[in-house]
Amino acid sequence: MNTQVIMFHSIGCQHANTPYAKLSFPWEHFEYFCDYLVKNHYKTAFLSEWLSSQIKERKDKNIYLTFDDGFLDNWVYAFPILQKYQIKSTIFINPEFIQLGKAKRQTCLGKDTDDLRKKAIGYLNWVELKEMQASGLVDIQSHSMSHTWYPISNKVINIQQESNSQDYPWTIWNNSPNTKPHYLEQITSNSMQNYPIFENGRSLGIRRYFLSEEQIIEIQNNIADLLTKRLSRQEVIERVNIIVFNKRIFGRLETDQELFERYYYELARSKQILETGLNKSIDFLCWPGGAYNDLSVRISREVGYLASTLTSRGDNNPLHFSDYRRIPRIGVSSYWYERDGVRFYQKQIPVYILNREISGRRSFMSYRLSLVKKYKQLRRKK
């Protein structure tokens, strides 16, 4: 059997009005999945065991569950299920998103409610992280510090408004860093209305482009003026870029020193905070959005990470060195179909995906799954 490292994000909040709802996995399906693992005698383990198997070049029959981002629902929904079935998992955490507070939030014990789903929106706090780590079932590792995006040029590619504010939460994070742990509770921001969305990229894979606050306000004011002329969004974007060029509203790129210091903060500082807060070694890194480059990889190795992973299995650069390993992962999703306006989830599908990956054979259900996916793609095109 091939080693399988499985990627999850959120559990139980697929109906929430948040940017990550599309990443959420129904908690009933997660329990079905864990029950299946136990009944079929799969052993779950932490990534340290995966690394040991890689170094010793021995066969590894373990299943490794991983969660990205540190959503509060990992505590509310996933952790009680992990405890029930004694399943081990790894959660990759961004320290900038850890919430303050000394109270443990309510957990779901097999009975979900609308009130509980609302309370499950947010991020984990230190008390919850420490209890999960101490349980022996959860291992906390690093997802870098910020998990954000930055402009890479002064080219405007979109305009932030209330209708698309959830598409660009990083504008709020970058302008108001202190709000990050609680931004899901109030995703919109009046100061971000008509805010220019510049050409951008993930933090650990790009060189940041800087514009002054005055320059951004000038562009924002031009956008607001153009919107009064009843132009389409695309026409406003095209015209504001002409204004930016004609008025020479130019910024600057990060220097080499600034770039190094920012990457070092992302990778070394996150490791240090988690090690101090949890009194444990942080050896594994998950690249936010799969973004990295030669410099960020070099720094991650130098500060002591032993292996890293992306959001998926495929990538041109294997991130694999003699002293540093690439952890391949697969995503296990829950697909659904609609009948007479009612949405039906197929909780068996994650199990079929797992078996397909392990055996290399496609079952009847996997063919049915491919048809469901094609159907959804056709519906989107319409």
Proportion of beta-strand residues: 15-25%
Strand tally, please?
16
Averaging pLDDT over every residue, what do you get?
88
Query: How far apart lie the N and C ends?
Result: 41 Å
Q: Your description of this structure?
A:
The protein is of the alpha/beta class. It folds into three domains: 4-143 and 260-331, Alpha-Beta Barrel (TIM Barrel); 149-254, no CATH class; 336-381, no CATH class. The chain is built from twelve helices and 16 strands. It has helices at 27-39, 47-56, 73-85, 114-119, 126-134, 169-175, 213-227, 233-246, 256-278, 294-302, 349-359, 364-381, and strands at residues 4-8, 10-11, 24-25, 63-68, 89-93, 138-142, 149-160, 195-202, 209-210, 252-253, 284-286, 307-309, 325-327, 330-331, 336-339, 342-345. A five-stranded parallel sheet has the order 6-5-4-1-14. The protein has a three-stranded parallel sheet with strand order 11-12-13, covered by helices on one side. Strand 4 (63-68), helix 3 (73-85) and strand 5 form a beta-alpha-beta unit. The chain starts with a strand and ends with a helix. The model has no long low-confidence stretch (mean pLDDT 88).
List keywords for this structure.
382 residues; alpha/beta; TIM Barrel; 3 domains; five-stranded parallel beta sheet; three-stranded parallel beta sheet; 12 helices
